[in-house]
């Protein structure tokens, strides 16, 4: 439903979004995850047709956003960051205006507005001036606005930013419910948000895609940079085991201690090891060949937090063009 | 033109629910009320009213009191059009809706024109007062208002364009006043310059001589053509400016990279 290919946005020599490609399939709820200033809002604004891109191509529901901007915008319910609203209007008035603006036919309008208000749980403030609404309510009015024309695709920029924990939970539940009928792309800079609402995440850092996949995939990508071992050294020679581990190609470091005939410890794989799980398998085979008993060999999982930290702070890999390297 | 109606209605709503429109209308009516009673006093003291130079003619452009409020109040009616949307960020929701830029710009302009017409409507009472006391040439009244409408359309179009140039309504107001006052001052050139192309030009752009014609019941098509140009060109430019935000064409450093 959303296809982004080689999207770039430059402000002068600064690349706010740099060669970003990803896709969101029908019915998916995808988190667009990245620290502040990573380029999330810039990307979403381009997708929504508010900002022009420097280069690249974006299709929304099959419509190119430059060539068929109108059709693309029709597929879309967009909630800008911080949900700016006309504060002099009442909630129902505002949503009726938005529904009409988005081309909802007059006879359906009232029903659609009521439904969107119910879905976003703002029906209790229908007659309140937006000026007098709390941040949480304004955010949900923005959500109701995105929903009111029943677009197949929702793009939400930080839908829970600035809310208190209760409101955050409410909005997340709401998004989960919406995910059953909409394709959703939502941005966030906090990881639990993705865990709570999304099936998949696209991680962006400094304008570039830093990782992509289901949460499980993201986790497993970094899963085996370390492995936990419990060994029963042959003839009780702990030093031999440690020497063997250190000698294995790809093992960066190894630390552990012996206790009642067992050696427990952890090894860390070098970055150049392509498939740490395969390497661990190989390592176990060698340990067994040498006559050591293997009680446990577990690739340790990095927590999502660790993954996120790694993805977003890691320096650029070699071979990629440097930032600002325009022709 | 999609999006015209909802934006037009909302624009009027916002103009009248926030007191901006009311303030402008009240200020305008106070000034015009004083203007009118001054004129009445003046003509009451004159023994004989010369044809073509009655209170109606004087009201429609005989004195500075017609122009001064227009030069300031017209930019006031349009200062918020785009500047406030951009300051508050609501422009983002507006431009990501499936609407046409032309419809959007026309809606904002026409809402201002509608308010402008509402602002003038009570002055029809003055005509009724004159009619009670003497002769009233309805033809002159009609052309007088036509001239007023023409001036308003062009000033408001210029004001909408100025509002699209900045995020601050105050700056939009000042820019709009600079343009309208500039045009007005150019028109004064007609009175001070010697014959020649410069004087002809000044006469052409002069709101003063435009209203002079209209208040005599003369409808000069060149005057109408001028107003039409001064309306369509700024509106067209506004559409270009708004589209350039969307496509980032305004940012030359990025567009050159494509
Ligand atoms: N109009 C602009 N001109 C220059 N730089 C900008 C502009 N808008 C955003 N940026 C920069 O682009 C980067 C990405 O911003 P943004 O997309 O808002 O990040 P995020 O939403 O991920 O926090 C930031 O470093 C920001 O300073
Ligand atoms: Mg942001």
Record keyword descriptors for this entry:
heterodimer; A: 327 residues; alpha/beta; Rossmann fold; Alpha-Beta Plaits; six-stranded mixed beta sheet; four-stranded antiparallel beta sheet; 14 strands; disordered C terminus; B: mainly alpha
Would you kindly provide a written description of the structure presented here, covering whatever features stand out?
Chain A is α/β, with parallel strands linked by helices and 327 residues long. Chain A has 11 helices and 14 strands. In chain A, strands 6-7-8-3-9-10 form a 6-stranded mixed beta sheet, sandwiched between helices. A 4-stranded antiparallel beta sheet of chain A has the order 2-1-4-5. Chain A has a 4-stranded antiparallel beta sheet with strand order 12-13-11-14, with helices on one face. In chain A, helix 4 crosses helix 5. The longest helix of chain A has 14 residues. Helix content of chain B is 78%, strand content 0%. The longest helix of chain B has 27 residues. Chain B is built from 14 helices and no strands. Chain B is globular. In chain B, helix 4 runs antiparallel to helix 10, helix 7 crosses helix 9 and helix 9 packs antiparallel against helix 12. Chain B has one domain. Chain B has 258 residues and is mostly helical. Chains A and B meet through strand 1, helix 2 and helix 3 of A and helix 1 and helix 6 of B. The structure holds adenosine-5'-diphosphate (ADP) and magnesium ion (MG). Magnesium ion binds next to helix 1 of chain A.
